[in-house]
Amino acid sequence: MARINSALYDNGPDLIDSLEVDDHPEKYDKERFKCPECLVKIQYNSGVHKLDPHFKNWPNISHKEDCEIEKLQSLQSQNDNHNIQRLTSTILPRAERLQKFSTPQEKQKIIRRYLGRRSQIFLNALISIQDFDHKAIFIRTEDRQSIPIADLIMRQDQIVQKLDLDNKPFICILRGYLTTKIDIGNNIKIPLTYGGKYQNKHKFDIFIPSSFKEKNINKINQIEKSLVYCYGLAEKNEYGYKMDLYSITHQISKIQ
Ligand SMILES: [Zn+2]
Q1: Which of 135, 202, 218, 253 could join 123 via S-S bond, C-beta 3.0 to 4.6 A?
Q2: Which residues contact 220 (CB under 8 A, 6 or more apart)?
Q3: In whole angstroms, how far apart are CA 161 and each of 55, 78, 92, 222, 234?
Q4: Is residue 62 domain-resident?
Q5: What order of strands is seen across the sheet that includes strand 6-9?
Q6: What distance in angstroms lies between residue 93's CA and the mean position of ligand 1's atoms?
Q7: What domain range is 36 assigned to?
Q8: Measured in angstroms, how far is the CA atom of residue 41 from the centroid of ligand 1?
Q9: Cα–Cα distance measured from residue 40 to residue 33, given in angstroms and rounded to the nearest whole number
Q10: pTM of the predicted model, to two decimals?
Protein backbone atom coordinates (compact mmCIF):
# COMPACT_ATOMS: atom_id res chain seq x y z
CA MET A 1 0.00 0.00 0.00
CA ALA A 2 1.51 3.28 -1.07
CA ARG A 3 2.05 5.90 1.55
CA ILE A 4 2.88 9.36 0.29
CA ASN A 5 3.29 12.84 1.68
CA SER A 6 1.52 14.83 -0.97
CA ALA A 7 -1.56 14.59 -3.13
CA LEU A 8 -3.43 16.43 -5.81
CA TYR A 9 -6.59 18.12 -4.65
CA ASP A 10 -9.68 18.54 -6.84
CA ASN A 11 -8.51 19.55 -10.26
CA GLY A 12 -5.85 21.93 -9.01
CA PRO A 13 -2.42 21.58 -10.55
CA ASP A 14 -0.51 21.97 -7.28
CA LEU A 15 0.46 19.24 -4.89
CA ILE A 16 -0.87 19.58 -1.35
CA ASP A 17 1.48 18.49 1.40
CA SER A 18 -0.06 16.35 4.14
CA LEU A 19 1.32 18.81 6.70
CA GLU A 20 -0.77 21.56 5.11
CA VAL A 21 -3.86 19.40 5.56
CA ASP A 22 -2.75 18.65 9.11
CA ASP A 23 -2.57 22.39 9.82
CA HIS A 24 -6.05 23.16 8.45
CA PRO A 25 -8.08 19.96 8.04
CA GLU A 26 -11.32 21.97 7.91
CA LYS A 27 -10.27 23.54 4.62
CA TYR A 28 -10.30 20.24 2.75
CA ASP A 29 -12.97 17.80 1.59
CA LYS A 30 -11.60 14.34 2.38
CA GLU A 31 -13.22 12.88 -0.73
CA ARG A 32 -11.12 14.93 -3.11
CA PHE A 33 -7.50 13.85 -2.74
CA LYS A 34 -5.86 12.05 -5.66
CA CYS A 35 -2.61 10.20 -6.29
CA PRO A 36 -0.26 12.65 -8.07
CA GLU A 37 0.81 9.94 -10.52
CA CYS A 38 -2.18 7.77 -11.40
CA LEU A 39 -4.97 10.07 -10.16
CA VAL A 40 -6.92 7.44 -8.20
CA LYS A 41 -8.73 8.61 -5.08
CA ILE A 42 -6.57 8.43 -1.93
CA GLN A 43 -7.23 9.41 1.67
CA TYR A 44 -5.62 11.67 4.20
CA ASN A 45 -4.52 10.09 7.46
CA SER A 46 -3.22 11.98 10.48
CA GLY A 47 -1.18 8.99 11.65
CA VAL A 48 -0.55 7.45 15.05
CA HIS A 49 -1.46 9.95 17.79
CA LYS A 50 -2.04 12.46 14.97
CA LEU A 51 1.73 12.93 14.70
CA ASP A 52 2.42 11.39 11.34
CA PRO A 53 0.23 12.95 8.65
CA HIS A 54 0.32 11.26 5.24
CA PHE A 55 -1.89 10.00 2.43
CA LYS A 56 -2.75 6.35 1.93
CA ASN A 57 -4.97 4.18 -0.24
CA TRP A 58 -8.71 4.77 -0.19
CA PRO A 59 -10.38 1.55 1.09
CA ASN A 60 -10.73 -0.94 -1.75
CA ILE A 61 -9.16 1.34 -4.32
CA SER A 62 -5.74 0.37 -5.64
CA HIS A 63 -3.31 2.53 -7.53
CA LYS A 64 -3.29 1.86 -11.25
CA GLU A 65 -0.97 -0.87 -12.39
CA ASP A 66 1.54 1.46 -13.99
CA CYS A 67 1.58 3.96 -11.09
CA GLU A 68 5.23 4.80 -10.43
CA ILE A 69 4.64 5.57 -6.78
CA GLU A 70 3.08 2.19 -6.20
CA LYS A 71 5.88 0.48 -8.11
CA LEU A 72 8.61 2.20 -6.13
CA GLN A 73 6.99 1.50 -2.82
CA SER A 74 6.21 -2.15 -3.44
CA LEU A 75 9.85 -2.59 -4.39
CA GLN A 76 10.91 -1.06 -1.11
CA SER A 77 8.37 -2.77 1.07
CA GLN A 78 9.87 -6.12 0.08
CA ASN A 79 12.94 -5.43 2.14
CA ASP A 80 10.77 -5.04 5.18
CA ASN A 81 12.71 -2.15 6.66
CA HIS A 82 10.39 0.29 8.38
CA ASN A 83 12.92 3.12 8.15
CA ILE A 84 13.21 2.74 4.40
CA GLN A 85 9.45 2.92 4.00
CA ARG A 86 9.44 5.95 6.23
CA LEU A 87 12.18 7.63 4.28
CA THR A 88 10.58 7.19 0.90
CA SER A 89 7.10 8.14 2.03
CA THR A 90 8.39 11.22 3.78
CA ILE A 91 9.67 13.02 0.76
CA LEU A 92 8.03 11.09 -1.98
CA PRO A 93 7.16 12.39 -4.48
CA ARG A 94 8.56 15.83 -3.78
CA ALA A 95 12.28 15.79 -3.34
CA GLU A 96 12.32 19.31 -4.81
CA ARG A 97 15.57 18.49 -6.48
CA LEU A 98 15.10 21.06 -9.20
CA GLN A 99 13.20 23.73 -7.33
CA LYS A 100 14.73 27.17 -7.59
CA PHE A 101 13.67 30.16 -5.60
CA SER A 102 13.69 33.65 -6.97
CA THR A 103 11.51 35.73 -4.67
CA PRO A 104 11.55 36.17 -0.87
CA GLN A 105 7.94 34.87 -0.83
CA GLU A 106 8.96 31.61 -2.48
CA LYS A 107 11.80 31.27 -0.02
CA GLN A 108 9.50 31.81 2.97
CA LYS A 109 7.10 29.21 1.66
CA ILE A 110 9.83 26.62 1.39
CA ILE A 111 11.21 27.41 4.82
CA ARG A 112 7.77 26.88 6.33
CA ARG A 113 6.96 23.76 4.41
CA TYR A 114 10.17 21.80 4.13
CA LEU A 115 12.47 22.82 6.88
CA GLY A 116 10.28 21.75 9.77
CA ARG A 117 9.02 18.51 11.23
CA ARG A 118 9.03 16.70 7.87
CA SER A 119 12.77 17.18 7.51
CA GLN A 120 13.45 15.83 10.96
CA ILE A 121 11.55 12.61 10.20
CA PHE A 122 13.34 12.34 6.88
CA LEU A 123 16.83 12.95 8.27
CA ASN A 124 16.36 10.50 11.12
CA ALA A 125 15.33 7.82 8.65
CA LEU A 126 18.29 8.68 6.42
CA ILE A 127 20.72 8.26 9.32
CA SER A 128 19.20 4.97 10.37
CA ILE A 129 19.76 3.19 7.06
CA GLN A 130 23.08 2.03 5.66
CA ASP A 131 25.04 4.23 3.28
CA PHE A 132 24.84 1.69 0.49
CA ASP A 133 21.05 1.89 0.63
CA HIS A 134 21.27 5.53 -0.41
CA LYS A 135 22.18 4.33 -3.88
CA ALA A 136 19.65 1.52 -3.93
CA ILE A 137 16.59 3.41 -2.72
CA PHE A 138 14.82 5.46 -5.30
CA ILE A 139 12.51 8.36 -4.68
CA ARG A 140 10.27 10.35 -6.93
CA THR A 141 11.10 13.97 -7.59
CA GLU A 142 8.95 16.83 -8.81
CA ASP A 143 10.03 16.24 -12.40
CA ARG A 144 8.56 12.74 -12.15
CA GLN A 145 11.86 10.97 -12.32
CA SER A 146 12.99 8.25 -9.98
CA ILE A 147 16.43 8.98 -8.62
CA PRO A 148 18.56 7.34 -5.93
CA ILE A 149 18.53 9.15 -2.60
CA ALA A 150 22.31 9.39 -2.90
CA ASP A 151 21.76 11.95 -5.68
CA LEU A 152 20.14 14.38 -3.24
CA ILE A 153 23.07 14.27 -0.85
CA MET A 154 25.82 16.71 -1.80
CA ARG A 155 29.25 17.72 -0.55
CA GLN A 156 30.04 21.41 -0.31
CA ASP A 157 32.16 21.44 -3.48
CA GLN A 158 29.30 19.96 -5.49
CA ILE A 159 26.92 22.57 -4.06
CA VAL A 160 29.30 25.41 -4.86
CA GLN A 161 29.69 24.15 -8.40
CA LYS A 162 25.93 24.02 -8.92
CA LEU A 163 25.41 27.47 -7.40
CA ASP A 164 28.08 28.94 -9.69
CA LEU A 165 26.48 27.30 -12.68
CA ASP A 166 22.82 28.17 -12.02
CA ASN A 167 23.16 31.22 -9.80
CA LYS A 168 19.95 30.26 -7.94
CA PRO A 169 19.37 28.82 -4.46
CA PHE A 170 18.20 25.22 -4.30
CA ILE A 171 17.16 22.61 -1.72
CA CYS A 172 19.54 19.79 -0.94
CA ILE A 173 20.99 17.62 1.78
CA LEU A 174 24.47 18.81 2.63
CA ARG A 175 26.89 16.25 4.00
CA GLY A 176 29.78 18.03 5.67
CA TYR A 177 32.02 18.40 8.67
CA LEU A 178 31.26 21.37 10.92
CA THR A 179 33.95 23.31 12.76
CA THR A 180 33.18 25.65 15.68
CA LYS A 181 30.86 28.63 15.72
CA ILE A 182 31.89 32.18 15.01
CA ASP A 183 29.81 35.21 16.05
CA ILE A 184 29.12 37.61 13.21
CA GLY A 185 27.42 40.51 14.95
CA ASN A 186 24.20 39.00 16.25
CA ASN A 187 24.31 36.13 13.79
CA ILE A 188 26.26 32.93 14.05
CA LYS A 189 28.10 31.06 11.40
CA ILE A 190 29.59 27.59 11.59
CA PRO A 191 32.13 27.07 8.82
CA LEU A 192 32.63 23.65 7.29
CA THR A 193 36.12 22.26 7.09
CA TYR A 194 37.93 22.48 3.79
CA GLY A 195 41.21 21.08 2.59
CA GLY A 196 42.48 18.41 4.96
CA LYS A 197 40.82 15.08 5.47
CA TYR A 198 37.62 15.66 3.51
CA GLN A 199 39.32 17.23 0.49
CA ASN A 200 36.79 19.97 -0.09
CA LYS A 201 38.27 22.93 -1.90
CA HIS A 202 35.59 25.53 -1.24
CA LYS A 203 34.58 27.36 1.89
CA PHE A 204 30.98 26.86 2.95
CA ASP A 205 29.11 28.08 6.04
CA ILE A 206 26.08 27.09 8.01
CA PHE A 207 24.46 30.38 8.98
CA ILE A 208 22.07 30.99 11.89
CA PRO A 209 20.32 34.36 11.38
CA SER A 210 20.02 36.49 14.54
CA SER A 211 16.24 35.97 14.82
CA PHE A 212 16.80 32.20 15.13
CA LYS A 213 19.78 32.43 17.47
CA GLU A 214 17.93 32.17 20.77
CA LYS A 215 16.01 29.08 19.72
CA ASN A 216 19.18 27.21 18.75
CA ILE A 217 21.91 28.58 20.97
CA ASN A 218 21.85 25.73 23.51
CA LYS A 219 22.16 23.06 20.87
CA ILE A 220 25.08 24.48 18.89
CA ASN A 221 27.74 22.70 20.95
CA GLN A 222 26.06 19.38 20.11
CA ILE A 223 26.80 19.80 16.41
CA GLU A 224 30.19 21.52 16.44
CA LYS A 225 33.09 19.36 15.23
CA SER A 226 30.70 16.79 13.80
CA LEU A 227 29.97 15.19 10.47
CA VAL A 228 26.35 16.04 9.74
CA TYR A 229 23.55 16.06 7.24
CA CYS A 230 21.96 19.48 6.97
CA TYR A 231 18.76 19.76 4.95
CA GLY A 232 18.14 23.23 3.63
CA LEU A 233 18.40 25.87 0.99
CA ALA A 234 21.91 26.28 -0.42
CA GLU A 235 22.68 29.77 -1.69
CA LYS A 236 25.37 32.25 -2.57
CA ASN A 237 25.51 35.85 -1.41
CA GLU A 238 28.12 38.60 -1.21
CA TYR A 239 29.76 36.91 1.79
CA GLY A 240 30.12 33.50 0.21
CA TYR A 241 28.32 30.15 -0.01
CA LYS A 242 25.98 29.12 2.77
CA MET A 243 22.96 27.28 4.05
CA ASP A 244 20.69 28.98 6.58
CA LEU A 245 19.91 27.01 9.69
CA TYR A 246 16.63 27.85 11.43
CA SER A 247 16.23 24.78 13.57
CA ILE A 248 19.02 22.44 14.64
CA THR A 249 16.37 19.96 15.77
CA HIS A 250 14.63 19.81 12.40
CA GLN A 251 17.40 20.43 9.90
CA ILE A 252 20.47 18.64 11.25
CA SER A 253 21.30 15.02 11.90
CA LYS A 254 24.68 13.89 13.15
CA ILE A 255 26.32 11.15 11.15
CA GLN A 256 28.94 10.41 13.76
ZN1 LIG B 1 -0.94 6.13 -7.87
Answers
A1: 253
A2: 181, 188, 190, 208, 248
A3: 36, 37, 26, 29, 11
A4: yes
A5: 15-17, 6-9, 33-34
A6: 11
A7: 3-78
A8: 9
A9: 8
A10: 0.76
Is 93 inside any structural domain? no
Strand 146-148 versus strand 240-244 pairing type: unpaired
pLDDT at 102 over 90: no
Distance 219 CA to ligand 1 centre (A): 41
- The CATH number of the domain holding residue 137 is 2.40.50.140
Return d(Cα 168, Cα 153) in angstroms, integer: 18
Under DSSP, the state recorded for 251 is H
Between the CA of 38 and the centroid of ligand 1 the distance, in Å, is 4
Q: CA 106 to CA 89: how far, in whole Å?
A: 24
Number of structural domains found in the chain: 2
Å from CA of 33 to ligand 1 middle: 11
Give the distance (Å) from ligand 1 centre to CA of residue 2: 8
Nearest residue to 44 via CA among 27, 60, 31, 62? 31
Same domain, 185 and 224: yes
* Residues in CB range of 252: below 8 A, 6 or more apart: 123, 223, 228, 229, 230, 231, 245
Burial zone of 146 (CB within 10 Å; 0-12 exposed, 13-18 middle, 19+ buried)? middle
pLDDT in tens, 18-40: 878 888 889 999 999 999 889 99
Distance 152 CA to ligand 1 centre (A): 23
The tens digit of pLDDT for each residue in 3-13 reads 787 889 987 77
For residue 67, is it within any domain? yes
